[in-house]
Amino acid sequence: MAASLTSEWLETNGTGGFSCGTVSGEIRRKWHGLFWIARNPPRERVRLLVGMEEYLRHPKVTMSLTSTWADNQWNPPEGWPMFVTFPFPQWRWELEGGAILHKYIMMPKGSSDTLWVCYGLRRSAVQSSLRLSIRPIISCPSDDIELSTDRYQLASFGGFPLVMSSSTPLEFLRRGDELGPVTLETEKDCEDIHEQTLYTAAELGFEVTAEKPVFLRFGISREIEATEANMIHDQELARRTGLRVDRLPDDYEYLSARLSRAGEQFVVSTSLGRPTVIAGYPWFTDWGRDTMISLPGLCLQANRLGEARDIIRHFLTHLNAGLIPNIFPEGNHPPQYNTVDATLWLVEMAFRCWDVQTIINDKELWSALKAILAGYQDGTHHNIRLGRAGLVIAGNKGAQLTWMDVRIDDEVPTPRHGKPVEIQGLWYNALMLIAGAAREAGEIDHALDWEKQAGRAKRALEKRFPLGDGRGLADVVDRDGKGTRDETTRPNQIIPFALRHNIIPKDLRPEVLRHVYQRLLTPKGLRTLDPEHPDYKPVYKGNLHTRDHAYHQGTVWPWLLAPYVKGIVEEREQVPELAEKVPEIVQHLVWHFENEGCLDSVNEIFDGNTPHRPRGCFAQAWSVSALVETLQALRFLQRNGEPEPEPDWLDEES
After folding, report:
1. Is the Cβ–Cβ distance between 450 and 434 less than 8 Å?
2. What are the φ/ψ torsions at residue 364 (nearest 5 degrees)?
3. Residues 553-572: pLDDT tens digits?
4. Which of 134, 216, 131 shows the shortest CA–CA distance to 167?
5. Is residue 640 a contact partner of residue 272, using CB atoms and an 8 Å limit?
6. pLDDT digits (tens, 9 = 90+) for 403-457
7. What is the number of H-type helices and E-type strands within the chain?
8. Which helix (H) or strand (E) holds 609?
């Protein structure tokens, strides 16, 4: 049950389209909408249906089931619902006489242009049918509405008609009207344009009986029928309830299917049928960095190994001078390669998805991995290159190539040009992985060269990055190429703990973990800046300029918990006091997943200061992945590091 009627929910279709809103039906964001489609999956999204006012109509009284806009404000529903998120977003109203009305929303996987809304009634002693009416809310006038007994064209958006059909006869009650400028409270909090003129398409009435539920289908085609809804529902229900995430602690096994569904929402198909990962809902599309970091929790531990492999191959088709894209822009613009880390994350994920022998036997994959190393060695886009000491140099002043990548006009609030600490960890890991594979392939000269480079990088990091006095590692060295060292306490030093080969010297790892715990850990993730730093921003709010300045200056990111908790578990004998905290860390994130923000998902970011309010995208791929990974780390800790057999799905053919 939702703790608040302003909590949000999300339903997706696997092609970039989605449905989202608040539990109450109040429209608080410009992104809230019951029916979004992706014209060029997963990009170019169009909102066809904003929301829906719903009413229970007795002979003498009408009761609102959702929030309604009247007198320049949102009015809460008169009938307050119970709400659950799985296997579909579902509402339930307990009515007089014991009758229970329920509703769910469904977007079947792979169905790019269909939204289902179903109403059902549980029979009571005194009531076997109910009369309902709906008022679909749209963002433009609907003067050209086309009417029939079971099908309505409600509106048209740039050549896309919004068509609704019903499994039961519909009664036209009245035409739509203008709701007026509607206040969007979340946008108001962001000091963005927070008023939007909305309209109702029409008011339509229908009867729900205990014997036969009512299915409404919204789509962009006139040839749509609601009669097949029961079959589609049963198939989708069986599919979702069969989902699972492996290796959860016993106390959290009940979350298995829900976590798997939460992760599945981000794995989508492009217009060419290739899989990719939406970085976050409602406004992100697919980003290279986010995709690679998210694969463990979304795919590798959720029986989607084949999809993970296809995603890696998809990104490798865009390999350019040793880099994969960071962003695929809207429209027909070429990919952008402004990332120094995404490609190195891909190397890590490739070695998680395939065994070494398979990699070297796959000529295309093996050649691509070696081309990645060559790109960094020879120099590539954005002045990414290998320095004399064997460390990777990332860009110039004004570039934003790491995950702390905000840029405001010509200003970079968190400049990290030079040699960032996590990039050295990713580079060292890639060298070690590919060198090991080269040995297996009999390419000894290459293996020796890459191992030598890895050794140089490790020695250079050991010499240049440690700060001493228990302060962990510097964030960046050689700022501006002048040898300047950025000693700011940031969480990037824990990222190497996520990798197969950790560049951080063994004797320094406990110090790094303890320092991050003392300065950056919160119940929702890691702060991006020490609160005692003069640039620390405790709250992420205000206009876009203000928010961008806070984005990596103290704002909390939950995705960072995955490498941090993994590091604690690996070093548990050296940091037993931190190992004791892991159950509490996990519990806080699970509580958020179940009770706060977008229910059954994890927000992109949180405020740096208590109460750490959820901010940013309400559903973020790498945040959900981090929850899965931290839960699995907890299970490993509870089993005292006892190895487990590989899941059956890892035995799939490559």
Report:
1. yes
2. -65, -45
3. 999 999 999 999 999 999 99
4. 216
5. no
6. 998 888 878 888 899 999 999 999 999 999 999 999 999 999 999 999 999 999 9
7. 16, 34
8. none
